[in-house]
Design goal:
Elements: H1 16-23, E1 28-33, H2 40-53, E2 58-62, H3 63-68, H4 78-97, E3 101-105, H5 111-118, E4 126-132, H6 135-141, H7 146-151, E5 173-176, H8 182-195
Parallel strand pairs: 1-3, 1-4, 2-3, 4-5
Helix pairs in contact: 2-8, 4-5
Bound molecules: 3'-phosphate-adenosine-5'-phosphate sulfate (PPS) and adenosine-5'-diphosphate (ADP).
Adenosine-5'-diphosphate (ADP) binds near residues 38, 105, 141, 143 and 182.
Length: about 200
């Protein structure tokens, strides 16, 4: 790793607290994690749409989209996934600093990677949302036909097939997306944000 030298941290004139006061709500990251097809993207977007409707500053960072731009140099090896999550963690931190409720939809299969992102944040700002869905159901949904390809051996290192997924030990929120509708999941997540006085 290259260390930053001859670089000075500048304190901002407008702080995160200033922004919270002006916005009338707090900021945090809702970090969705789960298998491909578990529903991360669908639920993260539905949460964001509801927050938008309420006049809250929100933004979605989505796996496929980030991999088209910021992280287009990264593949799916263990090291690349770790770097993918590290960068997204840093981007999410900027969004939280800007006063935004940012939702992220990445498989983020490794516990240590997610914990390292958590460590970037102040207490309560990192909300891990485990979208828990059995592999069989994800494979039945197969919205992008990627499981089919992985089973045929056309995609290597596919999460859940020939690459591991480490479920969170103590996520703030668990959504059983095989049992809960998208609407119910949104309600539960917004309820959590209200309980914690983020909104
Ligand atoms: N080998 C392999 N394993 C898993 N997923 C794969 C792979 N190759 C391509 N894809 C597609 O890329 C999306 C996952 O990207 P992420 O950035 O979320 O992955 S990771 O967090 O770095 O593990 C994932 O999107 P989602 O289905 O939305 O999860 C897939 O569409
Ligand atoms: N309860 C549910 N929650 C989320 N997605 C669901 C649910 N039931 C069915 N689905 C479907 O499952 C698929 C999940 O895909 P997606 O959101 O892209 O997952 P991921 O981002 O985890 O890969 C979508 O086609 C969605 O419509």
């Amino acid at each position: 790793m290259v260390k930053a030298t001859n670089i000075t941290w500048h304190n901002a004139a407008v702080t995160k607290s200033d922004r919270h006061l002006q916005n009338g709500h707090g900021s945090c990251v809702l970090w969705f994690t789960g298998l491909s097809g578990s529903g991360k993207s669908t639920i993260a977007n539905a949460v964001s749409a509801e927050l938008y409707r309420m006049g809250i500053n929100e933004y979605v960072l989505d796996g496929d989209n980030i991999r088209h731009g910021l992280n287009r140099d990264l593949g799916f090896s263990e090291a690349d996934r770790t770097e993918n999550i590290r960068r997204i963690g840093e981007v999410a931190k900027l969004f939280v600093d800007s006063g935004t409720i940012v939702t992220t939809a990445f498989i983020s299969p490794f516990r240590t990677d997610r914990d390292q992102v958590r460590a970037l944040f102040e207490k309560g700002e990192f909300i891990e949302v485990f979208v828990d869905c059995p592999l069989e159901e994800c494979e039945r949904r197969d919205p992008k036909q990627l499981y089919q390809k992985a089973r045929r051996g056309e995609i290597r290192d596919f999460t859940g097939i020939d690459s591991p997924y480490e479920a969170p030990d103590q996520p703030e929120i668990i959504i059983r997306s095989d049992l809960l509708t998208v609407e119910k999941a949104v309600k539960e997540i917004l309820g959590y944000l209200r309980d914690k006085n983020v909104i």
